From TrEMBL:
Highest taxon listed in the record's lineage: Eukaryota
Key words of the record: Methyltransferase, RNA-binding, S-adenosyl-L-methionine, Transferase
GO MF: RNA binding; RNA methyltransferase activity
Official protein name in the record: SAM-dependent MTase RsmB/NOP-type domain-containing protein
Family: Belongs to the class I-like SAM-binding methyltransferase superfamily. RsmB/NOP family.
Spans annotated as Disordered: 204-233
Residues where S-adenosyl-L-methionine binds: D143, D171, D271
Transferase as UniProt keyword: yes
Catalytic site: C333
One biological process term in Gene Ontology: RNA methylation
Protein's organism: Zizania palustris (Northern wild rice)
Pfam families reported for this sequence: Methyltr_RsmB-F (PF01189)
SAM-dependent MTase RsmB/NOP-type domain mapped to chain residues: 28-430
């Protein structure tokens, strides 16, 4: 252990034995948990705001250090808060970790793409996706938590990025609405748009009587989260999202896998739900919450295993909605925790249809739970989806990350990348 790390570890309150054991089993250095204070905070500058850097620096009272490997990203000291600043309130900057920015770049969004963000809230990545699309294509954000998705809506509007977006409260494991099909007859621009409630008219935040009744009922019933069988709820769509003038029944029609292969999304992001507790900054919060809650909130086997299955189902459904030739990026916070490793699938059974697949131990213990929760999800997914292939992330050559245990996957380690840490895998769908 380096001297810096040792002295940083000495300044930490004692970590509970169960957690130290977990770290040991996973080949993780406890010193990483003292690092959160030294990892910079990252902001992304809205394109076109570069001339305003001196003004932003003087307002935040710190230098904006350009991140050489990531366009429009700047590092600032971790203690600087941006939320109270004018630059933030006026939508010139937003906070997003550099590794998250890399996951978006990995998607390689092109003008005109139809993009799906299946776990969109609170929306930093969604905003970056909208920026990359500019005034082209379409962006669909989905999240199961309505209040979190409402925060996305606020963000899109604040940064004037919502024009081509639509936001659905829905369960991402079963969401099946495809991008707006250009063959549908849109009445946009027509003078006699019939607003009879069956077609989309311009979006308004005012809710209809029917919607208000529905949410009243939901409140009485305790506002249940959408389940895989509930209908998706559209809570926002932009002026140029292509919906205006279309019949609701056409747009909201569930699709099947065959249809998605030809008319699905060009790009899909599955930034899956994780415990969050794996990120260094989150683990540090237990210092304040009390280490006793760590067992219940992080190391609880049932909860974390449920999460693993959720990640797999989100990935599988995101892939179903991808069109042939399209790309999907799957990302999770790097260190997610389960008390039961899913058995590693025999690589030879995958090699038969995944020639590029290759497992290396990569310095991690073979029973590593971080591997179980990241690479194993990828492995299990590849086993079940013969039309999926891992893709090399070309832009990653200059990134401060390393290969994951599966060839072509990436890991951003906090210590070496100076980010909060992320696991990233990119897939493409080919014709079977
Ligand atoms: C890691 S966060 C996503 C962060 C987001 N991509 C961003 O950049 O701000 C994971 C999100 O997944 C959502 N989620 C959890 N289960 C889901 C499900 N079944 N369907 C859709 N979203 C889900 C959570 O509500 C949470 O907002």
């Amino acid at each position: 252990m380096a001297d810096d790390a040792r002295s940083a570890l000495a300044s930490l309150p004692p970590l509970p034995a169960a957690f130290l054991e977990f770290l040991r089993e996973n080949g993780l250095d406890p010193a990483m948990y003292s690092m959160a204070d030294t990892i910079p905070r990252y902001i992304r500058l809205k394109p076109g705001m570069e001339p305003q850097i001196p003004e932003i620096e003087s307002e935040l009272k710190c230098r904006l250090d350009k991140v050489s490997w990531l366009p429009d990203f700047y590092a600032i000291p971790p203690e600087v808060h941006i939320a109270g600043s004018k630059a933030y309130q006026q939508g010139k900057i937003y906070g997003i970790d550099a590794a998250s920015g890399a996951a978006i770049l990995a998607l390689d969004v092109k003008p005109g793409d139809h993009v799906l963000d299946l776990c969109a809230a609170p929306g930093a990545k969604l905003c970056m996706l909208a920026d990359m699309l500019g005034g082209t294509g379409s962006l669909t954000g989905v999240d199961v938590a309505k209040h979190r998705l409402a925060a996305c809506r606020t963000m899109l509007q604040k940064y004037s990025l919502g024009d081509r977006c639509r936001l659905f409260v829905a369960d991402g494991t079963s969401f099946s609405i495809l991008p707006v099909n250009s063959s549908l007859d849109s009445g946009e621009g027509s003078t006699d748009l019939k607003n009879n409630g069956n077609t989309f008219s311009e979006w308004t935040s005012k809710r209809s009587w029917k919607d208000r009744q529905k949410s009243k009922k939901a409140k009485i019933a305790g506002s249940p989260q959408p389940t895989s069988t509930s209908e998706p709820e559209l809570i926002y769509y932009g002026k140029h999202s292509g919906l205006i003038g279309l019949r609701k029944c056409d747009v909201l029609r569930p699709s099947d896998d065959d249809e998605a292969r030809s008319s699905g999304y060009d790009k899909v992001l599955v930034d899956a739900e994780c415990t969050h507790d794996g990120s260094i900054k989150h683990i540090q919060k237990f210092e304040f919450w009390g280490w006793k809650t760590l067992d219940r909130r992080v190391l609880d086997a049932e909860r974390t295993d449920d999460l693993l299955h959720l990640q797999l189902r989100l990935l599988a459904n995101g892939f179903n909605l991808l069109k042939t030739g399209g790309s999907l990026v799957y990302s999770t916070c790097r260190l997610i925790i389960s008390s039961h490793a899913i058995p590693i699938v025999d690589a030879s059974s995958i090699v038969s249809h995944q020639k590029s697949f290759c497992v290396t131990t990569d310095g991690l213990p073979s029973n590593s739970l971080t591997v179980a929760q990241n690479e194993n999800v990828v492995q299990q997914f590849l086993c079940k989806h013969p039309s999926a292939e891992l893709q090399k992330i070309n832009s990653a050559d200059n990134w401060p990350c390393r290969s994951g245990s599966i060839f072509k996957t990436l890991r951003f380690d906090p210590a070496t990348s100076q980010t909060s840490g992320l696991f990233v895998a990119k897939f493409t769908k080919f014709q079977t």
